[in-house]
Amino acid sequence: MIPEDRAVKSEAEIAAERGMPLTTWRRREAPAFRAALQPVNPSERLKLYDAAQVAAYLAGEPIPSAPTEGTATPHPDDQLNDREVGAVLGIDPATVRSYAADGYLPPGPRWSRRDIEARRTAGDQRGADRRTLAQQREAEVRQWLDAAQRGERGPVGIRDIREAYGVSERTALRTLAQARGEETSA
Questions:
Q1: Cα separation of 33 and 45, whole Å?
Q2: Which of 8, 41, 100, 172 could form a disulfide with 161 if both were Cys (CB 3.0 to 4.6 A apart)?
């Protein structure tokens, strides 16, 4: 976790400040830098460093001690990694990354405690948008069927549904059956 009031920098940002490409910085300066400073997230692939310590190191000044974690109370703007988010939501870190890729969570690799708590409070909403769209399609097709029965339009077929909504034949068939009130097998 990165506390909300703790500024951090990645190695790419440090290299940019030094005015050199990241690969050059890693070859020339990173070994000494890494020996002098510990990342705030040592177990993660993208290493982040305390901004105050980075500034002191680059200025050739004594490096201040890092803020101690665990002394502050959780804050809504704390930045959590995938393992910490998984612990809050009760899921695996790989599932957290999958949720972020699917848009169920904001893009990572860090998430604010506020966003994660809101997701936990909201409950499982995955697929809610797809269900809503299916229900809207079904209601519209039901209206088409009613209009066809009154003679206001021609018969409704699978092709009409596929063309109107850009869905597969199977989805169109299922939508038509549900609009007619027929039982469908999943």
A1: 17
A2: 172
- Amino acid 13: pLDDT: 92
DSSP 139-151: HHHHHHHHHHHTT
Percent of the chain with pLDDT over 70: 88
The Cα 165–Cα 151 span in angstroms is 23
Q: Model pTM greater than 0.85?
A: no
Amino acid at 164: A
* Residue partners of 184: CB distance under 8 A and separation at least 6: 174, 177, 178
Q: What is the pLDDT of residues 18-72, one digit of tens each?
A: 999 999 999 999 999 999 999 988 877 888 898 999 999 999 999 888 766 555 5
Beta bridge partners of 2: 79
What is the separation, in whole angstroms, between the first and last Cα of the chain? Answer: 43
Q: How far is it, in rounded angstroms, from Cα 145 to Cα 139?
A: 10
Q: Is the pLDDT of residue 147 over 90?
A: yes
Expressed as residue numbers, the domain containing 135 is 128-180
Q: How far is CA 115 from CA 32, 85, 88, 108, in A?
A: 37, 10, 11, 12
Q: Is residue 134 part of a domain?
A: yes
Q: Is residue 71 part of a domain?
A: no
